[in-house]
Every structure is written in C-alpha cells, then in structure tokens.
Design brief:
The chain is an alpha/beta fold. Helix content is about 40%, strand content about 20%. It contains 14 helices and 14 strands. A 5-stranded mixed β-sheet has the order 5-4-3-6-9, with helices on both faces. Strand 10 and strand 11 form a beta hairpin. The protein is globular, with a radius of gyration of 24 Å. Bound molecules: zinc ion (ZN). The site of zinc ion (ZN) has 6 residues, from loops.
Length: about 425
C-alpha cells in the first residue's frame, strides 16, 4: 500500500495528479457556493485564483450533473459591474447522504442534504452485548427505507463511532462503549448497500458539522466539546478536522484528575470522564440522597442530570451544590487547557452541555474563561453547540459530504500508486484541466 498510515508517524503523501487536482478544485468551488451563496464564474475565479476557463469547465460539469443552477438575472435587475453575467447557485437538494450515529444506547439514522438539514430520522435501540456484525446488520436494515426515500439522489453513507478510526475512514479501530476493536465498518455498509461509505470518530464528525453548519461558520479554528456518558473533544484546525497522530483521537476524558479515584470504563482510576460522566453524577446524587431532603425526593428522576443539579442548588441544597461545583471545576480546567493548547476562535459546548440550564452554562463559560490565558481570553467565544437534536447524524452526514462530494481533504495518494510520482506543489492550472 502506497498510503502510509498517519497514525504510525509517517508523512501523509498527497497526490497532485490532474484527476485529483480537478476533484480538489471542484470541491473548492462547491464550498464557496455553499458558504457565500450565488456567485458568477468570474467571482469564483477571482476568489479561488483559478483561471476563468478552468472554472467554466468544472461548472459545466456540475450543471450537467444537476448540482448547480445557472440563472441569468432578469433584464431589470441592477448590474453592479461588467456585462450581465449568469449567476451560479448550489442545488441544495440535488443529492443527499445517509448519516448513521452508532452509540452504546442505540443507532440514529437520517438523511442529510447539502444545507445540513436532517430528515427521515430513524432511531433504533441496540440491545447490549450484541456483536459488531449484529449491530451493523441492524443499521443496514434500518437504513433501507431511508435509502428508498432518497432514491437516486443518494451519494453515500457516513458513520460516526465512539472512538478512533483509521486515516482512510474505513475501520473503527477501538470503540470502548461498543466493545469494538478493528471493525471494518465502511466495508460492511458498502457490501450490503452498494454505496460508498466512510467512518469517522463521532465527536470529530460533530466538530466538522459545527464548522460547516453550526457556530463555526466562517471560523477556521474550532473546538467541539461533547459531554454525556463520556467526555470527548475534537478540533477543527485551518478549516479541517484535526487528526491526532499516534492514536487518532484526543483522550482528554482519560486524563487522570483524581489520585486513587473511582474506576473508569477504560480500566484506569480517577479519569476526568469518571468524575464528569452522566452515570457517575447520577450515582453521586443517589449516594447523597440520604443526607438531603431535597435529593431524597428527586435523585432518581429521569430528567437531565444537569437540570436536576441546577434546580436542587437553586432550592438551597448543599449536597447538590458540592457536586455541581466539582463538575464546573473539572470541566473548566479541561476546556481551558484545550483552549490554551490550540487557541480556537470558537468553542462549541455539545451533548448534555447544549441543553444545560442557562445558569449552569453561564458558570461553566465564566470558570473556563478565568482559566484561559489572558491573551487568548478576549479572542475565544464559548457557546452552546448549534447542531440541534441529532449532532451525531448531522456529523456523520457532513463527513460523508466532505469526503464524497466536496472532497475537502487534500487527496491522499491512491493505494497502489507510486508515491514518488506525486508532485509536491500544484502546477498552474491549464484551461480545461
Ligand atoms: Zn479512563
């Protein structure tokens, strides 16, 4: 294989062969139209630095495929400069992808179009202790009605999993909540559904969706934080998802923060995740209930754990106040450290944090800002995630669109192609190239 795994510390070789370069340029033009709305061919050429004939050639192809509309403005429309040029716009419903979010609690599936709208949502409970093959087969069967609804607009499928994946987005390398190790996820979907598939770490998929459709619109650097039963983070750096080197995902949740602390799902003791995860917080509430009249009544309620804590604190419960203080201390240290490391312009608080009560969210933001270096403090915005109710589905769909439609990543050298033939720099583009 000519592609050397990023995860093993090798240089990631890029291909600038004409075919790959053209796909990359096509992605650039599509991304511009997505973000800036209708543009002329000349606008596209000026913004990208591509020649007008190159733009015209790629645009012709995209119009023929139905991905762009080409409209001449009406004769009475004001013309700002130059001759009256036709305006290109993205046909946002011209295609769709299937997003599949695989969690320990179950599967969520939905169709996702170019505007980031999720439709045809389907939720499947996955009973525990199923094999990976059984879970994937369940997902394939749940996908069939959605595929039928998408018809020939369907481009492919994106799958989000809770753990690292290989650099090509084919395998789930390790997913502790699912008990998976080296599962060929993409192959399974491709063999069963006959469409291209890509798999991504779920929190990184959400970070990409946040950058394309949520808070990070036009922000090049972004941190997405997801708190639920576990704690995950992912960065978008320079507009692209950041893939960690040796292992593939950040393991902030498994940073030890309490010496001789509680046992974590990873086997170690005192991990951040073991003091912030939902199951642990509910256990602490139940343990405190005998000492608190307020909690005795409420600790077993089904409502979100941060809401439970918030109302108990506001009703004057000291036990709940202690637990919430711990949450805010640990979480603000974790997010503050992450902000200081890579200095993102935006921080999106997702998962249970996206729906946290305003007082709780306000305290987390305030405590985090206080722990961030002064020089960074005024330049970072920390807010609720804007991904809506199904961030994993939107994330998976967004990754599929990035890889299969926009080709946003620089093309990797294809397997089997000699690496030394790949050019290091793009050549000036010629007409029709
Ligand atoms: Zn751990």
């Amino acid at each position: 294989l000519a592609v050397e795994a990023v995860g093993e510390g090798f240089v990631n070789r890029r291909s600038w062969l004409p075919r790959d370069l053209r796909a990359y340029h096509r992605g650039l033009l599509l991304r511009l139209l997505t973000e800036q709305g209708p543009l002329t061919r000349r606008d596209l050429a000026e913004t990208t630095g591509l020649s007008v004939p190159t733009v015209a050639s790629i645009v012709a192809e995209l119009c023929a495929a139905g991905h762009l509309t080409d409209t001449v403005p009406p004769a009475d429309a004001p013309v700002t400069r130059g001759p009256r040029a036709s305006v290109l716009d993205l046909a946002r419903d011209s295609l769709t992808v299937l997003g599949v979010d695989v969690c320990a609690s179950g599967l969520r599936l939905g169709l996702c179009d170019l505007s980031g709208t999720v439709s045809e949502l389907s939720i499947v409970d996955a009973p525990r202790r199923r094999t990976a093959r059984a879970v994937l087969s369940l997902a394939v069967e749940a996908a069939r009605p959605l595929l039928a609804a998408a018809g020939d607009r369907l481009l492919g499928v994106g799958v989000a999993v809770p753990g690292p994946v290989d650099p090509q987005g084919r395998h789930s390398l390790l997913a502790l909540p699912l008990g998976w190790r080296d599962v060929p996820v993409a192959e399974h979907f491709e063999a069963a559904l006959r469409i291209p598939a890509v798999v991504e770490y779920n929190v990184r998929a959400m970070a990409v969706a946040e950058a394309r459709h949520g808070l990070g619109l036009h922000a090049e650097n972004l941190l997405h934080v997801h708190l639920g039963k576990s704690l995950g983070i992912a960065f978008v750096v320079g507009g692209r998802p950041f893939h960690q080197g040796a292992h593939g995902v950040p393991e902030l949740g498994h940073q030890r923060v309490v010496e001789r602390g509680r046992r974590c799902s990873c086997g170690e003791e005192g991990c951040l995740e073991s003091v912030l995860g939902e199951d642990y917080l509910r256990q602490r509430l139940r343990d405190a209930a005998p000492r608190s009249a307020i909690l005795a009544d409420r600790a077993a309620r089904e409502e979100p754990v941060l809401d439970l804590l918030d109302t108990a604190v506001r009703d004057g419960d000291g036990e709940a106040a202690g637990i919430l203080d711990d949450v805010i201390t640990h979480l603000s240290t974790a997010i503050g450290t992450s902000v200081n490391l890579l200095s993102p312009a935006r921080v999106a608080l997702g998962g249970d944090l996206a729906t946290a009560p305003p007082q709780v969210l306000g305290r987390i933001v305030e405590a985090t800002r206080a722990k961030v270096s002064q020089v960074v403090r005024d330049r970072v915005r920390i807010e609720r995630s804007a991904l809506g109710r199904y961030p994993g589905v939107l994330g998976a769909g967004t990754v599929a669109l990035d890889r299969l439609f926009y080709r946003d990543h620089e093309p990797l050298t294809a397997p089997g192609r000699p690496a030394q033939r790949a050019r290091r720099r793009p050549e000036p583009t010629r007409p029709g190239n």
